[in-house]
Amino acid sequence: MAFVLETFGKLQLMDREGNVVAFPEKGLLLLAYLLTSEQGTAYRATLDRFLWGERDRGISDSTLRKLLSRIAALQNELGVEVLSLEGSAVSINRAALSSDLLLVGDEPDPFVRLKGLVRLMDQTFLGTASTQSREFRHWLSEREKYHGDLLEDTLRSASQLAQTKEQSRLLRDAAIILFKSGPRDQDTLNLLVQSLDAGEQVASLQSFFEERRNAIAKGLDTLQLKPSEQKPKVAARVSAPFEGSGASGLPLVSGELGITVPRLVLLPPTNQSTHADAASLAAFLIEDITIGFCAFNSLQVIAPYSAIQISHHQETQAAFFERHNVNYVLETRINAVGDEVTLFVQLIFFDDSQILWADRFRLTHHSLLRDRKAISRQIALCVSSEIARHEEVRADLQLHPIAYHRYLVGRQHLARLTLPNLRRARGEMRAALSASPDFAPALSSMGRTYSKEWLLTARGDIDLLTQAENLAKKAIEKRSDFADGFREFGVAKLLQGAFDESAEAMEVAENLAPHYADVIADHADTLVHCSRPSMALQKIERAIELNPLSPDPYLWTAAGANYALSEFQAALDYIGRMADPSLADRLAAASWAMLGRQDMARVCVRRVREANPNFDVDKWLAAVPSKEQWQKDLYREGLKKAGF
Fold first, then answer.
1. What is the CATH number of domain 239-390?
2. Helical H runs in 458-567?
3. What mean pLDDT, rounded, does the chain reach?
4. How many CB atoms within 10 Å of residue 261?
5. Is the separation of the CB atoms in 194 and 159 below 8 Å?
6. What is the pLDDT of residue 351?
7. Alpha-carbon span 477 to 469, nearest angstrom
8. By C-alpha distance, which of 135, 149, 138, 157 is closest to 48?
9. Alpha carbons 117 and 123: distance in angstroms, whole number
10. Largest alpha-carbon pair distance within the chain?
């Protein structure tokens, strides 16, 4: 053979000595196309459509003639005819050209054949070469299916014969590549689970849910907020998010309510560190996480190739996710503080940009080599379990579409804490409850409007807190596994000064939704008022990490925790990050005064007086709950120094 056409990795033509031949890219695509055609021949009109699609025929004819003329001149220079031009037909000289495109299908040893396929298919087919014609896309799709089928058949043959660690590793590598192309049926998925030895993930998942069920049941017993006969129902919902099983015995999502299998895209990590090897370390982990998801046929995972492509175009990501019905996005990023490199992972529910779970993992060489599989398994399990939990909530919501729509509109108003917005939100929640009186999310959110109004008006109106508590109790009665109900009950109890009941309710809420940033933030606020500011600060920083574009209540809570720790400048820094810093004018005035900045304190005092001319420090502090007297004394000192 005079030349070799390489199509995996880079699309290029090589001579006998391994040198790259300067061949036009469109000409290389013609070689690949003709090599895969049955006769090795195609008419010019066919090649014209393959390279340029249905554009102006005169222009494309002229462009094709110039391309073929250039190839003919190059062949004369090389002294070898790879393409022959006869009238309106173009043919390939197979005797002069070999290619990896023909793969290794004739090799009798399945492991040798598999090794060759893995080496080739671990690279991108055609590299960056492409054209926008429909004919090209159709041919490319056919080729990728052919490659996938060949790899799957070879993997099936070899999987029954593996005896050595090297052979097992080869099976694993092949399974990863096949998974990345998107398994097309349940049998293929079962093959991947077997090849990747991922079945243990299911037992781990079941153990995870059993532990979680026990923690939640314990919290419910402590609060005594629901009839005992309801406990088995709650336990079943929490411990068994998957119903039924596939052919492999692995759990499947129930289709009883018409809920489709959720779709997840795992975006490759962005590197925000200066460590050159951080990306390769993370790549190992992402590969292992991919293996973990093979165990869960309750998820459809977007093929990593598509995930990598869309990660480069952030401005079009939302449109891609909508077009391909993506429900969940797993984002990863690499950070470094000094010599410590970490991988931050967060799971986002795309429909409303809600962060369901996040965590951070060390990526040092030593710990990664030791803990890599444990970390990847933990990520896969956490993501799968959070999606399962969230899918249950979605199933309930989709039973009440009108109520859900009004609820979502109301939640938008709740994002900005002003009295007009609170009242708009309350109106939407009333409309949601008119459509579905037992709709727990609307009940708990309506309770939230009353507790937030109590905070904003600073009048100590106990009726507002009573309504908030009653609505939260009703939400818990309707959905006893719904974290928001317990959260709003805890907030209402806190503002009434029932610290122990509030803390217990928040503990249950966080057990029900351990990565729900809003719940963690309210738990932190409870701890501030329980005079435990250090623990509160840890929790609110965790909530901010989960929800980096933090709403004002998060920052307000962080400011309050810092004030209680006498970190007055840190408190002001958090207030300064709020979209509406005037909400925390009382706290800001006290902080400025404690720093000796009376000029800044007076500005805040004046704004408070304008908004609430009847504001009285002693009445307000009598209403604001603080478990320990020292905390009230510290706040009073700041407010008095500010001029209240």
1. 3.40.50.10070
2. 462-478, 483-495, 499-512, 517-529, 533-546, 552-564
3. 78
4. 14
5. yes
6. 77
7. 12
8. 135
9. 10
10. 99
Paired with 345 in beta bridges are: 332, 359
Domain 400-514 has CATH 1.25.40.10: yes
Summarize the confidence of residues 75-87 as an average pLDDT.
85
Q: Looking at this protein, which amino acid is placed at residue 12? A: Q
pLDDT at 477 over 90: no
Mean pLDDT, range 327-343, rounded to an integer: 79
Task: Supply φ then ψ for residue 480, to 5 degrees.
Answer: -75, 0
Q: Are 587 and 560 in contact (CB under 8 A)?
A: yes
Output the six-digit token pair for 460: 């100590």
Half-sphere exposure of 551 (CA within 13 A, CB side): 15
pLDDT band with cut points at 50, 70 and 90 for residue 259: very low
Task: Say what the pLDDT of residue 157 is.
Answer: 84
Question: Position 416: which residue type?
Answer: R
- Distance CA(445)–CA(448), nearest Å, equals 5
98 token code pair: 């070999």
β-bridge partners, 344: 333, 360
Average pLDDT over every residue of 21-36: 90
Buried-exposed string 2-23: b where 16+ CB fall within 10 A, e elsewhere: bbbbbbbeebbbeeeeeeebeb
Q: Does domain 3-100 have CATH number 1.10.10?
A: yes
Task: Point out which residues pair with 355 in neighbouring strands.
Answer: 348
CATH topology of domain 528-644: 1.25.40
Q: How confident is the model at residue 56 (pLDDT cuts 50, 70, 90)?
A: low
Chain-centre distance for alpha carbon 316: 16
Name residues whose C-beta falls within 8 Å of residue 367's C-beta, 6 or more positions apart in sequence: none
| Tokens of residue 48, six digits | 């014209």
Beta bridge partners of 99: 5
Question: Could you give phi then psi for residue 356, rounded to 5 degrees?
Answer: -90, -30
Q: Exposure of 308 by Cβ count < 10 A (0-12 exposed, 13-18 middle, 19+ buried)?
A: middle
User: Minimal CA–CA distance to 589: which of 551, 639, 545?
Assistant: 639
Q: How confident is the model at residue 248 (pLDDT cuts 50, 70, 90)?
A: very low
| This prediction's pTM | 0.52
Residues, the chain: 644
Q: Which 3-state string (H, E, C) describes 121-144? A: HCCCECCCCCCCCHHHHHHHHHHH
Residue 347, SS3? Answer: strand
Sheet containing 97-99, strands listed edge to edge, beginning at the edge strand earlier in sequence = 20-21, 12-15, 3-6, 97-99
In eight-state DSSP terms, residue 300 is E
Neighbours of 273 (CB within 10 A): 19
What's the rounded mean pLDDT across residues 51-60? 69
